[in-house]
């Protein structure tokens, strides 16, 4: 199996198009056509991570965080990023990063946080905009059923819990080919009126190439009339963070002790106790201070994330209990998620969970 085949599986779970614009995701080091001996899954890629891959005969590291985030101007080994990149190249080890692509999917980082906490009735906290597109095309009415099915098969027409969604209007289409045309129906230079069906169908932006390929391959006209527009609608199953509920409420002190134990941390930084029950909880892996207002608007009693700065705790405004469990701690279960997923997809070689902690923060 090639690296491309492995990453295709990963991108079924976390399409790269879902990543934030500032991010650096995908294959950072390596050749997509290289054969894979084994895969090491980790949260971060450090020098010891590359050593672990070598020891386990893994030539592909799947990392949550990208080791290359900003542009590299030289590779002299002067810092840990350059040393990791050099060591990986010297040992023919590829590195692939998922980061915010996995943050934004419905079964990603925040969903795993909900799972370990035991939250139910979970939904996306900040649904993402600009990733739904709409195709409008026109086909001979007698061909509309087959064309529509081909578009469905290509991944178009899914809305939330529903598939095969489209809107169809029958009407009359007109066309007149010039001397260089080769019309399917009628003759060049002849004004034609045909019974046509207007098909309108939505799809996720990353599926555009596949959807258009299905359109062109299954349409009989020499020139296919179509429009693709990007919608401002939010995607209810794609976006940052999740919000869910405990089956039974607990008091704020018990909640914080439970969070501390669940995320295996020596310290939970939190805002002022509100002396009210905690039942509805929002979560977001990694640096999540930007979503405090979203958690409040969603009616969360508490919000679990990381990297809150001093003044950001004031944003709680006695409306919500903020709990900062630490960046690494909030994302630590992500590599388990990836290992579980890949082991279901691939059985021809080892998928290994990195045993090394890459947390750079210690407590005393």
UniProtKB/TrEMBL annotation:
Keyword Metal-binding: yes
GO cellular component, one term: cytoplasm
The entry's keywords: Metal-binding
MF annotations from Gene Ontology: metal ion binding
Domain of life: Bacteria
Gene3D superfamilies reported in the protein's UniProt record: 3.30.70.120, NIF3 (NGG1p interacting factor 3)-like
Keyword Nucleotidyltransferase set for record: no
Binding-site positions, a divalent metal cation: 65, 103, 327, 331
Subunit structure: Homohexamer.
Family label: Belongs to the GTP cyclohydrolase I type 2/NIF3 family.
Listed PANTHER family: GTP CYCLOHYDROLASE 1 TYPE 2 HOMOLOG, NGG1 INTERACTING FACTOR 3
Protein name: GTP cyclohydrolase 1 type 2 homolog
Organism: Tenacibaculum holothuriorum
